[in-house]
């Protein structure tokens, strides 16, 4: 065999038909246009599924047309022309078609000239074509507006064309460079020559059979060329399941890999810091806190690393649960690291934990209890001396608990014996960051991830599918809670009432937050603080400017109702010292009104805060507002959250705010929020124009599919952890999720 031949056959062995570049399959021109949609290979193109299907029309003749009917007719073009629209932008293509007996008109609206001329050229006078559309009447005459059409070049093809016309017409996500029809043609070109063995199936046969789903080859054919709508739906179901299955298999593998690394068992001690802490707790744990505590205690006592997600309603007391787990580990001779997303939050955690522990955290001091440990704080902006001390305490083991921001992940940070990593408010941390911190243990540390806000179950399964999950639903007793009201910001009397309400609360010894979407005209919070301001920017934006911290501070200082009340300011662009001072003055009551941004969204805990006014509340996502209002009502006095908005109550935005005022169930709100926002905002990647591994799957709607796929995928991975017997699945995981998984997990 010649050298060259051998190479060719090797290549054809390694490269499956689906990996063939579109350039080679379709030519550079079409491939170039498809490339702009992120489609590079035959496999990519076949995974570019129709967005929807146009129903075939009833095949009829012109003389039998009825108004409003969806029809398909065969007719000849008797005139066609393009003109500019009288009003509005764009062009109009007008035509007249005839079946030899009757005539009717056609009209197409085209946003730009190129498109109009394409239509014109595809329907030259004399051409015969199939037209499908809904019959309407314009200026007394029957017409088809925007029919789909297909030219019949050879009259002998008419019969075949009629058969095709009775099938659903796939409508593809298209672009200015390539329209749906051309995409359909390109797909047919690559799909028609494929054989079953060219299309490996990542879902094992027995799973497909058990779920009664089409195989991948059949599913691809029927999703692109369905004979009936039932076929299209069946194909979509199979492909949707496949997406869920591959993703869940990837997560199951990740979980299996982490579980395979041995951990050090950290069993609870009969006497020690945890027992002493429990004895000095000023409240009793809720049932939920106790139950989750038992689960964590057991998992920490095992030599398999714990991998657990702790979800909880805002204010449900996740920190205490985490602290008890940390103390168990410290009692067993290990250290715990607590990772927080912002400096404000890290500093606050260190302070609250030290305060809750009291003498138990005063190791090495005269006041310290027997066996006391230390709490070290490590953030990026500390002084060199503070940093040196924290690093030394972490490395020597003197600090049983090390709290920090991303700074904790850096290479030179060392622990004597890291046994537990707690990640607070996970959605700001990525998988890699988790892993980097994990790598600092001698054995694999146990892992506890806490979410900032409740997230719907399927989202948890999708984003944190490699973790076991526990939920705290209960809010500790003795909390007065928050009542929420929408305040029309255009009504001066109501706005004035907001300020006087704040003044009353302050006079009663309480504190107030005033939250703004922006820092100033030109400044918003850095991206790591604000990551999901509502993007639908609806609302009468043009009529007023968006509330900004700097302006509102000035405004409130001049507000008669608040005369004599100190007004402070906190946002993410202040230096850490200034931020700490602002928080401290607010906590102590020296400055009882704090004008701020979403920096206070996560975890800030000031029990005396009883009122929060959110300005331009429609600018925030529902989950975010829920999280924000969780900052008040944490003490025994009832609290109120006032959502000021210019949005009309009858608009979707107005209704969203009303929904928030009507419920305090964070899980319910999270679902509403997710349904409203584009899926991609939650799972990342989608908007970037790159292909996303989730095409048909919708994380909220497809709960049952995701649950089924998760069970199946876990069974497959448990039986074959290395996936040696499932090479196609292993390849699908690698291909679909390479880079992208990290990307969306990071951002989620
Ligand atoms: P989150 O779950 O939102 O992070 P935290 O852990 O910050 O909630 O707890 C909120 C507040 O509730 C804290 O001040 C905490 O000390 C208090 N807390 C926690 N558990 C209880 C309980 N069982 N009874 C009363 N107060 C509690
Ligand atoms: Mg918290």
UniProtKB/TrEMBL annotation:
InterPro entries tied to this protein: DEAD/DEAH_box_helicase_dom (IPR011545), Helicase_ATP-bd (IPR014001), Helicase_C-like (IPR001650), NA-bd_OB-fold (IPR012340), P-loop_NTPase (IPR027417), RecG/Mfd (IPR047112), RecG_dom3_C (IPR045562), RecG_wedge (IPR033454)
All residue ranges annotated as the Helicase C-terminal domain in the record: 518-675
Record GO biological process: DNA repair
Domain Helicase ATP-binding: 299-472
SMART domains: DEXDc, HELICc
Keywords recorded for this protein, A-Z: ATP-binding, DNA damage, DNA repair, DNA-binding, Helicase, Hydrolase, Nucleotide-binding
GO molecular function per UniProt: ATP binding; DNA binding; DNA helicase activity; hydrolase activity
Highest taxon of the lineage: Bacteria
This protein's name: Probable DNA 3'-5' helicase RecG
Species annotation: Beutenbergia cavernae (strain ATCC BAA-8 / DSM 12333 / CCUG 43141 / JCM 11478 / NBRC 16432 / NCIMB 13614 / HKI 0122)
Lineage: Bacteria, Bacillati, Actinomycetota, Actinomycetes, Micrococcales
């Amino acid at each position: 065999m010649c050298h060259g031949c051998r190479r060719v056959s090797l290549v054809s062995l390694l490269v499956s038909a689906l990996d063939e570049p579109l350039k080679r399959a379709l030519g550079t021109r079409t491939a170039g246009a498809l490339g702009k949609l992120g489609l590079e290979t035959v496999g990519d193109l076949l995974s570019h599924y129709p967005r929807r299907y146009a129903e075939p029309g009833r095949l009829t003749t012109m003389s039998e047309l009825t108004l409003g009917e969806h029809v398909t007719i065969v007719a000849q073009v008797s005139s066609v022309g393009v003109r500019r629209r009288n009003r509005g932008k764009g062009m109009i293509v007008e035509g007249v078609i005839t079946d030899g007996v009757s005539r009717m008109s056609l009209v197409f609206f085209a946003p730009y000239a190129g498109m109009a001329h394409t239509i014109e050229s595809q329907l030259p006078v004399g051409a015969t074509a199939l037209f499908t559309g809904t019959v309407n009447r314009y200026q007394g005459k029957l017409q088809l507006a925007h029919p789909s059409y297909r030219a019949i070049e050879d009259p002998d093809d008419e019969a075949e064309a009629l058969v095709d016309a009775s099938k659903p017409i796939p409508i593809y996500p298209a672009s200015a460079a390539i329209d749906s029809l051309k995409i359909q043609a390109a797909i047919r070109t690559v799909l028609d020559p494929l054989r079953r063995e060219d299309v490996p199936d990542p879902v094992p046969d027995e799973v497909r059979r058990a779920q009664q789903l089409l195989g991948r080859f059949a599913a691809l054919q029927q999703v692109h060329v369905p004979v009936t709508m039932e076929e299209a739906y069946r194909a979509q179901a199979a492909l949707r399941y496949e997406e869920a299955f591959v993703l869940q298999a990837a997560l199951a593998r990740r979980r299996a890999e982490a579980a395979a690394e041995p951990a050090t068992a950290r069993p609870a001690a009969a006497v020690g810091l945890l027992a002493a802490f429990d004895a000095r707790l000023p409240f009793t744990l809720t049932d939920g806190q106790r139950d989750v505590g038992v689960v964590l205690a057991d998992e920490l006592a095992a030599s398999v690393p714990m991998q657990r997600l702790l979800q909880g309603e805002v204010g449900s007391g996740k920190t205490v649960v985490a602290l008890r787990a940390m103390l168990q580990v410290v009692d067993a001779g290990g250290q715990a690291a607590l990772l927080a997303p912002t400096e404000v939050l890290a500093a606050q955690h260190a302070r609250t934990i030290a305060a809750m522990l009291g003498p138990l955290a005063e190791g090495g001091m005269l006041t310290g209890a027997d066996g006391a440990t230390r709490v070290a704080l490590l953030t990026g902006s500390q002084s060199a001396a503070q940093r040196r001390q924290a690093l030394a305490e972490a490395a020597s083991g003197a600090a049983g608990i090390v709290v920090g921001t991303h700074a904790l992940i850096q290479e030179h940070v060392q622990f004597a014996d890291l046994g537990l990593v707690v990640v607070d408010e996970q959605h700001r941390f990525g998988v890699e960051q988790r892993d980097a911190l994990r790598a600092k243990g001698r054995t694999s540390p146990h892992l506890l991830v806490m979410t900032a806000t409740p997230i719907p179950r399927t989202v948890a399964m999708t984003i944190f599918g490699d973790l076991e999950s526990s939920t705290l639903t209960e809010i500790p007793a003795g909390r007065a809670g928050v009542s929420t009201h929408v305040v029309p910001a255009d009504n001066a009397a109501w706005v004035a009432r907001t300020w006087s309400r704040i003044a009353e609360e302050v006079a009663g010894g309480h504190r107030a937050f005033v939250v703004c979407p922006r820092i100033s005209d030109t400044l918003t919070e850095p991206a790591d603080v604000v990551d999901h301001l509502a993007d639908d920017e609806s609302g009468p934006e043009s009529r007023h400017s968006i509330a900004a911290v700097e302006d509102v501070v000035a405004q409130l200082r001049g507000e008669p109702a608040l005369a004599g009340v100190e007004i402070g300011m906190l946002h993410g662009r202040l230096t850490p010292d200034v931020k700490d001072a602002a928080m401290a003055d607010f906590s102590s009551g020296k400055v009882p009104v704090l004008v701020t941004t979403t920096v206070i969204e996560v975890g800030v805990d000031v029990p005396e805060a009883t009122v929060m006014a959110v300005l331009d509340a429609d600018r925030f996502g529902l989950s975010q507002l829920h999280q924000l209002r969780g900052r008040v009502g944490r003490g025994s006095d009832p609290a109120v959250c006032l959502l000021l908005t210019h949005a009309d109550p009858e608009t979707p935005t107005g209704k969203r705010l009303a929904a928030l005022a009507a419920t305090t169930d964070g899980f319910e709100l999270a679902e509403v929020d997710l349904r409203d926002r584009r899926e991609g905002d939650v799972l990342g990647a989608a908007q970037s124009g790159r292909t996303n591994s989730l095409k048909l799957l919708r994380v909220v709607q497809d709960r049952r599919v995701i649950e089924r796929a998760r069970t199946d995928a876990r069974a497959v991975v448990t039986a074959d952890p290395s996936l040696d017997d499932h090479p196609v699945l292993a390849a699908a995981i690698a291909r679909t999720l390479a880079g992208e998984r990290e990307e969306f997990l990071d951002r989620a």
